[in-house]
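Below sits the subject:
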Amino acid sequence: MKKTKLGTNTNLIRGGLNRSQFNETSEALFLTSGFVYDSAEQAEAIFKGSKKGFQYTRYSNPTVETFEKRLALLDGSEDCFATASGMAAVFFSLMCQLRAGDHLVSSAALFGSCKEIVKNILPRYGIEVTFVDGKNLNEWKKAIKKNTKIFFFETPSNPLLELVDIKAVCNIAKKHRIKTVVDNIFASPVLQKPVSLGADIIVYSGTKHIDGQGRVLGGAILSSKKFKENVLKPFLRHTGPSISPFNAWVLLKGLETVKIRVEAQSNAALEIAEFLNKHSKIEKVFYPFLKNFSQYSLARKQQTLGGTILSFKIQGKKKEAFKFINKLRIFDISNNLGDTKSIVTHPTTTTHRVLSEKDRLSLGITENLIRLSIGLETVSDLKKDITAALK
């Protein structure tokens, strides 16, 4: 029978399905640390790799493998390795490739923990780092050295939704045999496919849109099969940032509805961004699909929708920002995003607190900046909540 290409929704429900001998409807949860073998010879063959089989959940697990296969189908990458968290995915996607004496080029606009890894942790291992304005292609070109191994960036960035031209930067990297690692957490694999634009490695926090319901931690590194088998897998299986089978199972079930959720949340986010854009008490709104967004054309080129996150600067300073946040009744005050519940965040004092004041201000992260993650509540209720808080 000829194999047919299945649609996204079908893959999100049935991709990577691996039923046990019990023929269960829902994917089985293999909550086990290890596996047994029929013979010593079989164990030897599996450990040698001459025979396929599971060895230890730190290496792989049937539930984890199903999650990895399904996410790879959505992302468009050949393969996937699930990790314990999104930050584990970011750190190990870099460390599995880098050695002392190597050079990494990164966009300056990064999430606080990502910036901490690149700026302060990698140099401890003798890795040289250069930060560039991710929007400026010439800066990427000028930063390249003989020992440059990786280009790293997130797009859209957290929290100001700054975009990097994925295709253009990847083209520059390929000319110099540099690997490109893209943090696609804000857009999610639903709205943006970096691999189709030339990216080599894509990282996700499963905690965000993939779960999207505030339940578990998890992450994933997407790449070619060759990169996973030859570079990523040997490094990760010995260093141990493995995801638990239970968390993988929760994320697997989250994938079934991720497209529906992210698209609905993105449509609501655009409506709220347009609403705030006209409000007299708002200085500026940052949302990729607003027509007055500085990178609107690029956003329309590489994203299908604007995403579930928007940021804005309220008139005033920290006092006014806190007053607004505290007056909200539907929005939860939290540092998470991509959840079905709408969330409000003050980046300066939470997600980007680890950055110096100088670094924050250079990125435009001021005390009056507020980030909203739009959930699945009725949009008119969210608007009323925002209106009342602004009064």
Summary: Residues 120 and 129 are 10 Å apart (CA to CA).
